[in-house]
Amino acid sequence: MKNTITFLCLLFSILAIKAQNRTTIAFLPMSYDEASISSNEARIVQETVINGFVSSKRFTVVDREKLEEIEKEKSLQRTEAFMDSDNTVADGLGKGANFLVDGSIIAISNSEIKKNKWTSNISVQIRMLDVSTGEILSTETVNSTFISYSGDVKKVMKSYYSKDEFKRVEEKEERLQDPSPTSSEAFNVALIPLSDNIIKITRSLFPMAAQIISWDKKKKDEFILGAGHASGIQIGQIVDVVKPSTVVIGDKDLQRNEIVGSAWIIRVDDQNFSVATLINNQKDIKKAIKKGEPIGVLIR
């Protein structure tokens, strides 16, 4: 039994290390209906989508439009004048992408619900293609619908936030759901939940495993997580608490991460470490730990 647990913990560690090697992606220009969507709106939406991928910290984004400039700079730096310089452009900057992100803006609707009260909704479709095969690996439709925190999460927030901090969270939620005085302001407001939803989608496409380093002996629901700023961890982020195992199907050993609960990031210490607290299923998780079962975290 101990050997099995040790193997699973080791396997979980290997997956965590592999997950930190980011996938390289490039973006194709998003298509849209020019009759109903302005070029300026399309540009802003595309930038929001790209920034969502960057903010997720799961990818190295290659700017295809600037690759030619980078290649010229690299050629210049290979000349004799730069041979002894340490400040050269790394070859990795010009490398090709593993995946292409192709997308289309389905709709941008600005609606006046009453006088000087506007709402906006943005909907985009994102397709991820394998560069080597052209195969569509995933198709997702993402919109600007605001998703509020659950009651469990708000309960935890109240425990850790000051009254002013929690009030700011509630005010932000209200601002993102209330109508705006102009259509342009409503559009700008809609970009915020669109960005948040893009980040969630990108993380779900490439979830990252992380180790639980240790549990707090005094605050028994809190634990130190082996992931920080470098992995895109942010205060207030929700992560899955999982029980990793290996399932043999035919001649393949497949990694299974059974979700046994969720946790909320309460502090990010540095690039590699953060602190989280359990949101739910505390009793079952602690029972599994007592039995010596491996417990880890999956960051989506």
UniProtKB/TrEMBL annotation:
GO terms for cellular component: outer membrane-bounded periplasmic space. Residues 1-18 form the signal peptide. It comes from Winogradskyella psychrotolerans RS-3. Keywords: Signal. Gene3D superfamilies: ABC-type transport auxiliary lipoprotein component (3.40.50.10610). InterPro entries: Curli_assmbl/transp-comp_CsgG. This is Curli production assembly/transport component CsgG. It comes from the Bacteria. The keyword Lipid metabolism does not apply.
